[in-house]
Amino acid sequence: MKQLALCAIGALFSWTVSAQQMISGTLKGADGKTLFLYSDEDNNPKDSTVLKDGKFSFTVTPATPSIHALILQGKDYPYLFVPAKEPIKVVFNVSDFPVAESIKGGEENAAMQAYQQAFRPLIQRAQALNAEAAGIAEDDEAAKTAFRTKAGAFNQDVLTTGKQFVKVHPKQLASMWVLLNELRTRLDQEEFAQIYNSLDKSLKETKYGKSAAKYLASTQGEEAGASAGLAPDFTQEDVNGVAVKLSSFRGKYVLVDFWASWCGPCRAENPNVVKAFERFKDKNFTILGVSLDNNKERWIGAVKQDGLSWTHVSDLKGWSNQVAQLYRVNSIPANFLIDPQGRIIGRNLRGAALEAKLKEVLK
User: Fold this and answer.
1) In what order do the strands lie in the sheet with 79-81?
2) What pLDDT digit, counting tens, does each position of 113-139 carry?
3) Fold type of domain 10-104
4) Which InterPro entries does its entry note (predicted)?
5) Cα–Cα distance measured from residue 334 to residue 290, given in angstroms and rounded to the nearest whole number
6) Which of 25, 163, 258, 284 is least surrounded by CB atoms within 10 angstroms?
């Protein structure tokens, strides 16, 4: 989905491929702006409309319980919804989008909106923290220490908010979304498994539940591999079409960083990655970016815009990227820290956690 990180129960499983559902409503104060409809299948809009008198209406045809998004021109975050058998009706004010004034669309959409309301203050804090991180000088240790404290408190608040949401909504698809997109990178394997197992069986049978199960399997496989073998080797072409092999970096610490130009959370995290790279690049550390883009121009443009001055590769196949599949990457941003012997020693390290891990190993 555009700007998404960076992923309907019971009777909903009776849907068929030909079943059509409707979402319509009013978006006040946005006349002349374009409203886009996205599915979770790819990063291309399924439909769009230029708002007139604030009215919109879209028809979706999901084959299984799935999450869709409405993205408003000029807004960074989407309104997420689960197509229902009954028509969904939503009223927004442009100043509050994607939080709605009112929703008629069943328990699934009430829960999805509750998630967006609960996380809205956290999104605002994340934006402020990213801006603060970008302004900290390399030699300002006091500012770095203060920032790490703020980042730690932020991560704890995300965990607290996410866990509480899942506890209250164990049967709603929004909880599986929260687990995969908000909690996954902040939980260890055991905690992730505990929360996953607390969710209703019907959720585990959705494509999001299966994705969570694959993630669990991959972390178990990673632990075994880290003690007995090497990170999977791969070769992909860089921005100039030159083949780059992971094993060519043997002897260095390498962060294999999965991202995409269209991934909002990835782009928000990039200032932290740049900061870590600049601090440790002369200490036997580098980064290998793996893009899940399918448009080379956008990919290269984002590399330049975000100042990502390390090696980048992609096969431009989007979510079908062969390296992403090899590493069982189901959501982005995602990363793997590999030691000079080629073993995975860390994963999904963000912000202060990345810097702390690098400081630990690059003594």
Assistant:
1) 47-50, 34-38, 68-72, 79-81
2) 999 999 999 988 888 877 777 677 767
3) Immunoglobulin-like (2.60.40)
4) AhpC/TSA, DUF4369, Thioredoxin-like_sf, Thioredoxin_CS, Thioredoxin_domain, Thioredoxin_ResA/DsbE_sf
5) 10
6) 284
